[in-house]
Amino acid sequence: MKNFYLTTAIDYANGAPHIGHAYEKILSDAIIRSRRLEGMACHFLTGLDEHGQKVQETADKQGVEPEQLCDGVAEKFQALCRNLNISNDDYIRTTQRRHTEVVGRILMDFHGRGEIYKAEYRGLYSVRAERFVLERDRIDGHWPEDFGEVVELCETNYFFRLSKYQDWLIDFLRSHEDFIFPDFRRKQVLEFLREPLNDLCISRPKARLRWGIELPFDGDYVTYVWFDALINYISAVGYGSEHFSDRWPADIQVIGKDILVPAHAVYWPIMLHAAGIPPPRKLLVHGWWLVRGGEKMSKSLGNVVNPLDYAGSYGADAFRYFVLREMVVGQDSNFTHELFLSHYTADLADDLGNLLSRLIHMLGRYCGGIIPAVELEETEEKNLRSLAETAISRVRIHCGSYEFSLALEAIFELVRETNRYVERRSPWKLAQNPAAGPALRSSLATAAEALRIGAALLIPVMPGTAEKIFRQLGADPAVRWLDLCWGTSLAGKKLGAGEVLFPKILEANHALPQMPA
Do 65 and 227 meet the contact criterion of CB atoms below 8 Å apart? Predict the structure, then answer.
């Protein structure tokens, strides 16, 4: 049985983690956790891209070997995964033997079949992007910021016959309309392919770059970092072994819009096709986080959000909630500290946290810390149950189509309505009337069950918070959405120790030093 296989882009070993890295991993984690809740066997890969000119230059500036630099960067990105509660099954590094051997095998195969040839090339080269560029890449006469310095180079190198497969790729994209999500990105790729493709330079001379995977057929060259890096998606799951088909093709490859064209939408499917390997089933392309009314985050501008600062100050789940609540997958979104605090206070502390706190307090005071059974089910109770059942359906649909912002809307609609239900039933007033015992117990049991449903639906986005709610309600944390329904599983359960989910923010903590003024 094939696993549901999801990959992120692998991070580049030339800087510290920022919100873009964090968002991609959180989004991927939410997708994979929702699939596990649906009963799927899953495999989740992320990792580190360690070769290339920028890594070598940074290591030289720091006076260390590239391997030492990469070890330190790998630990930072792995710490990001741990601190954000990312449930990846594997972490690949492109210096690992399991990867370099597969790269060498594919290079030898391509070279032996004439898919790779040697030639002299004179052209423009982007140092920052580590690739040759064309005049058509200019925007309004200027090179994009991501290209950095662009210089003219004349070198003898090895080339992969990319242009040979341009017509195949166009036909593939036209006949597989669901290959790239959202669809306007597929149309963007087709627009790019209206111009003839150049063959892809897949080598760098060691005289200029020593840090890379040596070409197995010419020891004077190393492999171009993008040709090397893309192969991680298959090397990590045993390309060439009998178990490869247990995971490949990948079901979803999650990437940012800046590496869609040409790397993932042109190089990657053509490389796979030339090797006789089926392409991934879907590229899911997300947008950028912006600040200051649409300005892109940039290290040079000093406006990059450090996700570990937020996770450390407010908790990983609060950060996970915000980025998935605010960004519609595929679009850009703004990050402001004020907006984060607004969601934290209103949604998490006041709505969700307050609901749990009130219920635990009242169940302890009026029911001896034991969740009662529902004895009366009137219109109010039936309405809340109906809303919970609708939320289950909506959330499963939205998570299946990567609409996590809509899924969270449905969950918090249930949370807010449960708060309103508690206000209308007013258990503290019912407790003053001995004859209202059945109504008191039923109201608390009903609210607790609604919260249990809400917590189960929150697992993909806020796994730690869901676990805390289950623990305090005495609920079974081993819930699957396949089995999730309104029920009586809480009746007779003993409450766990009370714990504040989202502490109120002190005024002194309202500003984080890494945010732009």
Answer: no
Cα-flanking dihedrals φ and ψ of residue 218, to 5°? -160, 105
Q: What is the pLDDT of residues 72-100, one digit of tens each?
A: 999 999 999 999 999 999 999 999 999 99
The predicted pLDDT at position 134 comes to 83
Residue 300: what pLDDT?
62
H helix intervals, 126-220:
166-175, 183-192
Spatial distance between the Cα atoms of 491 and 475, rounded to a whole number of angstroms: 10
DSSP string, 364-429: HHHHTTBPPPP----HHHHHHHHHHHHHHHHHHHHHHTT-HHHHHHHHHHHHHHHHHHHHHH-HHH
Question: In this predicted structure, what is the pLDDT of residue 299?
Answer: 65
All domains of the chain in start order, with CATH: 4-286 (3.40.50.620), 337-483 (1.10.730.10)
Q: Are 116 and 107 in contact (CB under 8 A)?
A: yes
Beta bridge partners of 4: 42
Report pLDDT digits (tens) over 257-276. Answer: 999 999 999 999 999 999 99
Closest CA to 430 of 452, 416, 445: 445
Angle separating helix axes 307-314 and 19-37, nearest 10 degrees: 60
Alpha-helix residue ranges (DSSP H) falling in 426-480: 427-430, 437-458, 463-473
CB atoms inside a 10 Å sphere around CB 377: 13
- More confident of the two residues 151 and 466: 466
Residue indicated by tokens 């095998």? 105
Dihedral pair phi/psi, residue 131, rounded to 5°:
-155, 155
Query: What CA–CA distance (Å, rounded) separates 258 from 332?
Result: 12
Query: d(Cα 465, Cα 407) in Å, to the nearest integer?
Result: 16
Write down the pLDDT at residue 514.
44
- CA–centroid distance for 224 within its chain: 26
Whether pTM > 0.90 for this model: the answer is yes
**Ramachandran sector of residue 114 (left: φ over 0; alpha: ψ -120 to 50; beta: rest):** left
Q: How far apart are the C-alpha atoms of 424 and 275, rounded to whole Å?
A: 65
**Mean pLDDT lowest among 111-115, 137-141, 228-232:** 137-141
In the three-class reduction of DSSP (H, G, I as helix; E, B as strand; rest coil), residue 490 is classed as coil
* Closest C-alpha among 289, 279, 290 to residue 179: 279
The predicted structure's pLDDT at residue 53: 92
pLDDT of residue 176: 98
